[in-house]
Structures
1.
Amino acid sequence: MDIYHNSRDIEFRKPFGASPCGGNIELSLYAPKADYAVLRLYADEAGEGLIDPVSFENGTYTWRFSAPMDDLVLWYFFVLSIDDNTYCYGNNRDSLG
């Protein structure tokens, strides 16, 4: 199963590193066999939310959104549907991105 996102690669996360409050963020996920994918965002202070992709092109889903105006840390992972199965794709156990 081909699924790929690298939080340290500008092709998958723009901007790299911290984003200013209210700044634009773009995340991408390569998942050509997924029937659908959503982005799950979570912040301790702000709760959680699901965001639909803005595009799917050449096997890559893309999301664009604005960072919250509050100074907080956002966590995220992707939820995918492939052949009637649901998968969560996120950070590895070593928290290396």
2.
Amino acid sequence: MVNIHQYWVYIMSNYTRTVLYIGVTNDLYRRYCEHKNGTIKGFTHKYKCNSLVYYEEYNNINDAIAREKELKGWKREKKEALIAKSNPLKTDLAEELEWI
């Protein structure tokens, strides 16, 4: 039996899309709900980052963590370009995933 794990690197933003938060999780839906509902106090709660604007899926946690660190090291312009490739309108992807 093969046990395949799933991990996501994701970017959340606020309503005006002026703040970006990059994170990694093993349950994107749960983590999205935590951000959306403000249940986790910290940066995303303070800056109201509750819209999922980008995500990537990985099967290996080490790959996901490495990618998260890579993205966090990028300048904002490069992050914006990455988001624009798959989500040019910066819509909340939870709608596309039918979470809302």
3.
Amino acid sequence: DVLLRNVSHELYEKYIEIQREYFHAMAKYCLGFIPGSVVYDEYKEETFVAKYTADNQTHLTLHHDGDHVSYTVNTLLSDDFTGGGTYFEGDRKFNGFLAKPFVGETLMHPGNRKYRHGSRPVHSGERYILISFIHF
């Protein structure tokens, strides 16, 4: 995993503008439907690029991003791989869900322990995703 600001400061600055204008506005709207969820205008973020391959960091087991993470933004950057995807754990009402977005599509979800998720194993190729943890 590599922080986006260490990949390219210019790219990082552009991404932060997009994040504030689009993703954060969407989070304020969508997360407002979850009881007890509050989205503040001021926030801190941690944005990084993650790489998954069949040989190294093939997957992530079910986890939550931490109670300090208000929401997570996950954007697929590549499609030259097989396997992969983000799996969201089910509960008594929900049987679980495997999200396999197209390049450029973004998943957004709360980061707390109620929203456990994991990355399914990559079987071949390289899967790159851009992840932002948003902290209030």
4.
Amino acid sequence: MVSEEHKKLTSMGCKYLKSHNFGVVIEELYCSGSRERTDVFGLRSTCSVVIEVKVSRNDFLADAKKPERQSGGLGNYRFYLCPEGLLQPSDMPPKWGLLYAVGNKVVEIVKPSGNMWPPLVRDPQVERYAEDWRLFQHESDIWA
């Protein structure tokens, strides 16, 4: 059973992606052929994003053991969204961002700068602006 707090943060994650010009935002995505179930999934012309909502530290620790967290998985960019202070930047796995829910706002704690969201494909025209974004990119499992 999903808690009311989890539902609220999931909705906030959707609004966050929409505010960053993601044209397709899906809440609680379940895909056949994949065991991964994402809280928030967003698509933009250049990339995809997964936001995993965590309302307890135990849930976060259990999430780290999932096979899709070890390799593959959905999303070129991945974030955890949690209540303020539940997780720390030092808790983040490599290439994951961190967002806090503070009141009714999503606050970016660990994220590349700006609103660029570049694709995985290297484009010489955008490469000089995308350097810190490359540190957050994941090779997603296209079959998932």
